């Protein structure tokens, strides 16, 4: 038994999920890797939090570091919809708490104006299941561990007069995540893409890093299959899957 398993709390039931909580882990996604669907893992601290393409995610005390195991639909369109559905669920939670100035940044960051408040990472470790890693800045101070994050992040403690506790935020996110995934199964991916397209800011000029190849233009949202739509200076459209884009920079 590894150290992280030894320090875990007993399994509890929360919002129709089984929840395991830890003090310190390397990564909640890695802890959740072999767990059954509708199981969630929360840790006070991650020592090796990750973002897309193995980027570091500072996961200090006071933030919400949560992973949720869900069934993974084999349909490619539904797979493409999963990270967008998660971003929508987090956005809905934060809007319900009264956070103002929310917007999404493709593919799944939640921002307040231009500062990152929440993000996520989806892994697949075993067939048929996805692990959704969610990070939300609550009362943590990531810029103290990484000065490059100064003026780049937002946290709920600064945005709300009475921010939720970690336990309250965990329950809200798990409830909304299950609801959005249920809506996705019932209504299909196209309906979800339409909902998400309403949450981007007005078209912004962006630069796409396509693994050493750079493309720039106006971000126009998603097409009916969930691909990123980019308009060049002449109005010509190009389309990209999430796995093709290493990084999107708003110019």
3D structure, described in words:
This protein has 251 residues and is an alpha+beta fold. The chain has helices at residues 3-6, 28-32, 76-97, 156-159, 166-187, 189-197; strands at residues 12-14, 17-25, 39-46, 64-71, 102-105, 109-112, 115-123, 129-136, 204-209, 214-222, 228-231, 237-240, 247-250. It has 2 domains: 3-197, 2-Layer Sandwich (BirA Bifunctional Protein, domain 2), CATH 3.30.930; 204-250, SH3 type barrels. The strands form 2 sheets. The chain has an 8-stranded mixed β-sheet. Strands 12-11-10-9-13 form a 5-stranded antiparallel β-sheet. Helix 3 crosses helix 5 and helix 5 (166-187) packs across helix 6. The N and C termini lie far apart (48 Å). Residues 1-6 have low confidence and may be disordered.
Condensed summary:
The chain contains six helices and 13 strands. The chain has 251 residues and is an alpha+beta fold. An eight-stranded mixed sheet has the order 1-2-3-4-8-7-6-5. It has a five-stranded antiparallel sheet with strand order 12-11-10-9-13.
Set down the secondary structure blueprint.
Elements: H1 3-6, E1 12-14, E2 17-25, H2 28-32, E3 39-46, E4 64-71, H3 76-97, E5 102-105, E6 109-112, E7 115-123, E8 129-136, H4 156-159, H5 166-187, H6 189-197, E9 204-209, E10 214-222, E11 228-231, E12 237-240, E13 247-250
Structural class of the secondary elements?
alpha+beta
CATH class of the largest domain: Alpha Beta
In spatial order, strands of the major sheet run 1-2-3-4-8-7-6-5
> Which fold name corresponds to the CATH topology of the largest domain?
BirA Bifunctional Protein, domain 2
User: How much of the polypeptide forms β-strand, as a percent range?
Assistant: 25-35%
Kindly report how far apart the N and C termini lie: 48 Å
Any low-confidence stretches, pLDDT <50, length ≥5? 1-6
H-E order = HEEHEEHEEEEHHHEEEEE
Q: Over all CA atoms, what is the radius of gyration?
A: 18 Å
Shape: globular
Gross CATH architecture of the largest domain? 2-Layer Sandwich
Mean pLDDT across all residues, rounded?
91
């Amino acid at each position: 038994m590894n150290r992280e398993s030894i320090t875990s709390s007993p399994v509890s039931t929360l919002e129709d999920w089984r929840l395991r909580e830890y003090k310190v882990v390397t990564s909640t996604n890695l802890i959740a890797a072999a767990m059954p669907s509708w199981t969630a893992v929360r840790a006070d601290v991650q020592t090796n939090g990750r973002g897309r393409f193995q980027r570091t995610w500072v996961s200090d005390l006071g933030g919400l570091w949560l992973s949720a195991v869900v069934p993974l639909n084999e349909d490619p369109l539904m797979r493409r919809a999963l990270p967008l559905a998660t971003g929508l669920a987090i956005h809905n939670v934060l809007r319900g708490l009264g956070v103002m100035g929310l917007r999404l940044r493709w593919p799944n960051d939640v921002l307040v104006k231009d500062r990152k408040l929440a993000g996520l990472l989806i892994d697949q470790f075993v067939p048929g299941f996805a692990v959704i890693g969610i990070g939300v800045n609550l009362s943590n101070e990531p810029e103290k561990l990484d000065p490059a994050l100064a003026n780049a992040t937002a946290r709920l403690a600064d945005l709300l007069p009475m921010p939720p506790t970690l336990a309250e935020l965990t329950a809200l996110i798990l409830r909304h995540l299950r609801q959005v995934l249920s809506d996705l199964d019932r209504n299909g991916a196209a309906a979800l893409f339409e909902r998400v397209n309403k949450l981007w800011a007005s078209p912004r000029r962006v630069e796409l890093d396509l693994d050493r190849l750079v493309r720039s233009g106006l971000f126009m949202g998603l097409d009916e299959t969930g691909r990123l739509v980019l308009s060049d200076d002449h109005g010509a459209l190009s389309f990209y899957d999430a796995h093709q884009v290493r990084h999107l920079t708003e110019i």
